[in-house]
Specification:
Elements: H1 18-24, H2 27-37, H3 41-49, H4 56-68, H5 72-80, H6 93-110, H7 126-137, H8 142-165
Amino acid sequence: MTRGPTLRAHRLPDLPRPLDAFNTAPADEARALLLHCLHSARWSHRLADHRPYPDLGALLAAADEAAYDLAPADLSEALVGESLPELPADTYSAAHMALGAAHAAYEARFGHAFVIYLGDAPPDEALDRVLEAIRSRLANDPEEERVMAAEELRRLARGRLEELLSATGNRATSHNAPAAGK
């Protein structure tokens, strides 16, 4: 059987990779994107000032190092910009009440919003993980909780950076993705 002529391969245009765009963006734009990932001016300035990054892994390593170096004032600044993770739309109102009560107790004890990284949690387990973590961490002393909150902020920033700058994910360039700073 003879095959007909083959069509030329259709090649997509070369689009800038998200990391390349980040590396070449004006400093104020890079800092704004970074502030979306972790609400600390010192952290965002440090990462923006050390561009360009050869790859996402190098940026994530630098982000981790900068997060570990957060001073108490930087940590407080970052915590002010955080809120509880959103619950799935079909979550029962009783669950919202339980979460609200647990969060209020947490804020009263520690003076800031509860933060937790849920990037590795299946959506149907998010509520249980948040409630379990709040209840568990309420037993921490303030210094121990500051260390836990800093670690969760580091994980949140890393996950947000991966989502925004991953060359393989479409979320960073999707028209439906939230804009930086939103």
